[in-house]
Amino acid sequence: MSMERLWIDFLNSDWHDWRGSGKSADRLDQPDYVLAFARDQGYGQLAYPLPEELADLKSLRELLRRQALRMADGKKPEEGIMKELNQVLEKAAYTRKLEENGEGGWQVVSVPVQSGWKHIKADIAASFAETIRNGEESRIRICTNPDCLWVFTDFTRSRTKRYCDDKCCGNLMKVRRFRARRKEESES
Ligand SMILES: [Zn+2]
């Protein structure tokens, strides 16, 4: 699994072609993508979300995107958004269960009250809450290639990472700047 948090991977389901073809795709509408997402994040084999579950997931994504934009701008989380997020978190209820730990002893495990997409949605909100708790909000970036807009965490010490990937978007933008400069020079 990537180093990114669950909520960031989730945001990036809204895909834009970084190469600038203008193509984009809401991958939450693609069953193959959605089921692989659940599997890769450790939720096992789920059915594709029901229409109201899908609408719920998309509204959460919209909420988190608005917040990520603020973070990338160095702004604090917006109160209204936090309120809505807390409502999602409230639904992330767990019960506890005592079970044998396989070594002759016992352990208490947390069992989510809800299953499936409702549970995943709450986990996504919880992973966002963790980013804030860890003080990582100042590391949230949105790729500065305007065609890309990929959300990522800047783990560099200098906190100056501007592109989701220096080899892809970074190079592309370098080439674009170079061409623009050459055009300017030839026109002057
Ligand atoms: Zn990018």
Automatic annotation (TrEMBL):
* Cited SUPFAM superfamilies: Jann2411-like
Tell me the domain of life.
Bacteria
Query: What is a single Pfam family found in this protein's UniProt entry?
Result: zf-CGNR
Positions of the Zinc finger CGNR domain: 139-182
Enumerate the Gene3D superfamilies for this protein.
Jann2411-like domain
Question: Which PANTHER family does the UniProt entry name for this protein?
Answer: BLL6575 PROTEIN
Its name, as the record gives it, is CGNR zinc finger domain-containing protein
